Amino acid sequence: MIYLIKFAYSFVLPPGIFVILLLGMVVWLWKSSRRPAIVLLAVSLLLYLSMTSVVSDLLIGSLERQYTQPSAVEGDVIVILGGGATSGTPDLDGQGNMSGPAANRLLAAARLYRQTGLPVIFSGGQVYADSGNEADIARRQLIGLGIPAEDILPENRSLNTEQNAVNTAALMQEHGFSRPVLVTSAFHMPRSMVQFEHAGLTPQPFPVDYQASRPMSLYFNKFTPSAGAVSTTGLALKEYLGLVAAKLLP
Fold first, then answer.
1. Which of 18, 19, 26, 207 has the fewest CB within 10 Å, making it most exposed?
2. Where are the transmembrane segments (predicted)?
3. Are strands 94-98 and 85-91 parallel, antiparallel or unpaired?
4. What is the DSSP string of 183-207?
5. In terms of C-beta density within 10 A (0-12 exposed, 13-18 middle, 19 or more buried), how is residue 33 classed?
6. Backbone φ/ψ region at 14: left (φ over 0), alpha (ψ -120 to 50), beta
């Protein structure tokens, strides 16, 4: 009964309700003009597929499997890439919080620091007027997690992955580091590696923050539309587009 309710909700609430409305328009158009109806049906099916976790998991999973997490760390500095932060939101020791993937990256890097004792560079600035400065927030939170302030080097000017790489390379050169251990979300790692190589660095990839389970299971609710699947599909497509652009426009 629980899964039946979940199935019903997926087509009553957004985004599933829009698929139902579009299919209703297909039926309505079919009576008068079949060619537009067929085009609308094709668009509706593509939209529906993008809303399912079976498609979103396949897309994001193919990115996540390109690099494996190493069993041993080989580097002289941990580099964490930002991925979003809020400003003005309450935290235990101040204001501003890392969001979603960025929080997972931060937590993984803090645990990695405890294993290795390597200094930490966090790269990420304030992308929008109402978002937090990622490196500044991360520094406060890393200190709150027990990492000494002298072991944290914030790089708080970067607005995208390309700038992450360029600004991190400059900061590493300034402090005498040459072998970065790159910590970012597994889906973001392929594009990040390309950008860091363009910046003259050869990092050891340490992917974290996995979105797709392994192995992937198939069950009925994998084929129902959900807002989470739409978000994951969009995230994966953004990474594919960015990866192509990074390779074609070094």
1. 18
2. 7-30, 36-60
3. antiparallel
4. EEETTTHHHHHHHHHHTT--PEEEE
5. exposed
6. beta
Dist. CA 59–CA 212, nearest whole Å: 9
Q: Which amino acid is at 16?
A: G
Q: Is residue 181 a contact partner of residue 206, using CB atoms and an 8 Å limit?
A: yes
Tokens of 118: 């390597």
In terms of Cβ atoms closer than 10 Å to its own Cβ (0-12, 13-18, 19+), residue 84 is middle
Neighbouring CB atoms inside 10 A of 152's CB total 18
Pairing of strands 204-208, 94-98: unpaired
Q: What is the 3-state secondary structure (H, E, C) of 202-224?
A: CCEEEEECCCCCCCCCCCHHHHC
Q: Which residue has the tokens 């500044």?
A: 136
Tell me the one-letter amino acid at 49. Answer: L
The length of the chain is 250
Q: Three-state DSSP class for 106?
A: helix
User: pLDDT digits over 32-89, tens only?
Assistant: 888 888 999 999 999 999 999 999 999 999 999 999 999 999 999 999 999 999 999 9
Q: Is the whole-model pTM more than 0.85?
A: yes
User: Residue holding tokens 């129902």?
Assistant: 224
Helix then strand then coil, % of the chain, to nearest 5? 55, 15, 30
